[in-house]
Write a structure and sequence with these properties.
- The protein has about 180 residues and is mainly beta.
- The protein has one domain.
- It has 1 helix and 11 strands, in the order H-E-E-E-E-E-E-E-E-E-E-E.
- Strand 1 and strand 2 form a beta hairpin.
C-alpha cells in the first residue's frame, strides 16, 4: 500500500464512523429488535417504533397508497438464518431483507426488498424480491408501531404489524 493510499484509507474510516454516529444520533423514535427461535434458528426483526402522537394512521402517518418503511429511521430489517416460507408470500433464502408496505383501509401490500441496510426512505423498487397482500384486521388502538413474532410451533411463528386500530399478520415457516 502506498503512503497516499494509506492516508486516504485511514482518513475515510473516521468519516464513516461519524456518518454512522450522525444517523443514530438523529433517530427520532425508539428502536427495538424482536426475535423468535425456531428449531435452534433465530429469526429477528429490527425496527424504529414511531408513535401516532395525535396523528391519523393512513393519512398523516403511513399514508394509504404510498410505500412506507414499516417503522422509523432505518428501514425495518428482517434477518433469517435459514430458508423461510412467508404465508401468502415468497420463500426467502437465508439472509437479511428490508420490509416495506403500501397501507390501505382493507389490505396492506407487503414488500420484501433485497437491500437490507437502507437509511430513511431510500427505497429502490428494482430491488424488490416480492410483493403480496395481507388483509387488515381491526384491533384495539396501538399508539406506538409494534411488530411481534409469536412462536406457533417448532418451525413456525406468526408475524404481526400493528399501528392505530389496524394490524396485519402472516406466518413464517422454516423450510
Amino acid at each position: 500500500m502506498t503512503k497516499r493510499t494509506a492516508i486516504l484509507v485511514f482518513s475515510a474510516i473516521p468519516l464513516a464512523l461519524c456518518a454512522a454516529a450522525f444517523q443514530q444520533q438523529n433517530r427520532i423514535s425508539p428502536h427495538e429488535t424482536v426475535s423468535v427461535d425456531l428449531s435452534g434458528k433465530q429469526i429477528s426483526i429490527s425496527y424504529g417504533r414511531p408513535s401516532l402522537k395525535n396523528r391519523e394512521f393512513g393519512k398523516e402517518v403511513a399514508p394509504f397508497g404510498q410505500v412506507w418503511r414499516l417503522g422509523a429511521d432505518e428501514a425495518t430489517k428482517l434477518t433469517v438464518p435459514a430458508a423461510v416460507k412467508v404465508q401468502g408470500g415468497p420463500q426467502l433464502p437465508a439472509g437479511s431483507y428490508s420490509l416495506w408496505a403500501i397501507t390501505g383501509p382493507d389490505k396492506w401490500t407487503m414488500i420484501i426488498n433485497r437491500q437490507a441496510d437502507v437509511w430513511g426512505t431510500n427505497y429502490d423498487k428494482s430491488q424488490d424480491l416480492a410483493r403480496f397482500d395481507l388483509p387488515v384486521q381491526k384491533t384495539a388502538p396501538v399508539e406506538e408501531f409494534t411488530i411481534t413474532l409469536t412462536k406457533k410451533s417448532d418451525k413456525s411463528a406468526e408475524l404481526t404489524f400493528a399501528w392505530g386500530a389496524e394490524k396485519v399478520s402472516t406466518t413464517l415457516t422454516l423450510m
